Automatic annotation (TrEMBL):
Species of the source: Alkalicoccus luteus
Regulation: DNA binding is strongly activated by Mn(2+).
Assigned keywords, A-Z: Activator, Cytoplasm, DNA-binding, Manganese, Metal-binding, Repressor, Transcription, Transcription regulation
Keyword field contains Repeat: no
Function in brief: Central regulator of manganese homeostasis.
GO biological process: intracellular manganese ion homeostasis
The keyword Lyase appears for this protein: no
Family: Belongs to the DtxR/MntR family.
Lineage: Bacteria, Bacillati, Bacillota, Bacilli, Bacillales
Protein name: HTH-type transcriptional regulator MntR
Coiled-coil stretches noted in the UniProt entry, renumbered to this chain: none
Gene encoding the protein: mntR
């Protein structure tokens, strides 16, 4: 199992390859706001764990194992962002909240959150009812939304 740090790298590498067709050390460093030397060390570690193949000065390619994990990590992140939107978390806080919790949830919990997101997405009225319930329980939330 990859560590949370390895997951962050795999998720971002997967996204870069999906978006651009490739992922260079400098792209990864920029995306994760780390030094290129840190990326090189992690990429070598991921290579050793068979998540990717890395050749110095030539780039990297995700293995089937790396693609599978990367895709699942991107799904997890996007799912948690959508869940946060549904439950009414302020858009400015969603990214940092997801980054804070995504590594601490089991895949079973992620699957159940997925079920819940699907439940709400199947019927938009459910989301409206949830937001109405939240306003009744926390009248100050309306004031915060208006500011």
């Amino acid at each position: 199992m990859p560590t949370p740090s390895m997951e962050d790298y795999l998720e971002r590498i997967y996204q870069l390859i999906d978006e651009k067709g490739y992922a260079r050390v400098s792209d990864i460093a920029d995306a994760l706001e780390v030094h290129p030397s840190s990326v090189t060390k992690m990429v070598q570690k991921l290579d050793g764990e068979d998540y990717l193949v890395y050749e110095k000065y030539r780039g990297l390619v995700l293995t089937a194992k790396g693609k599978k994990i990367g895709k699942r990590l991107v799904y997890r992140h996007e799912l948690l962002e959508e869940f946060m939107r549904i439950i009414g978390v302020d858009e400015k806080r969603i990214y940092s909240d997801v980054e804070g919790i995504e590594h601490h949830l089991s895949w079973e919990a992620i699957d159940r959150i997925g079920d819940l997101v699907t439940y709400f997405e199947e019927d938009e009225i459910r989301v409206k009812e949830l937001k109405a319930t939240q306003r009744k329980q926390d009248p100050e939330a309306d004031e915060g939304e208006q500011q």
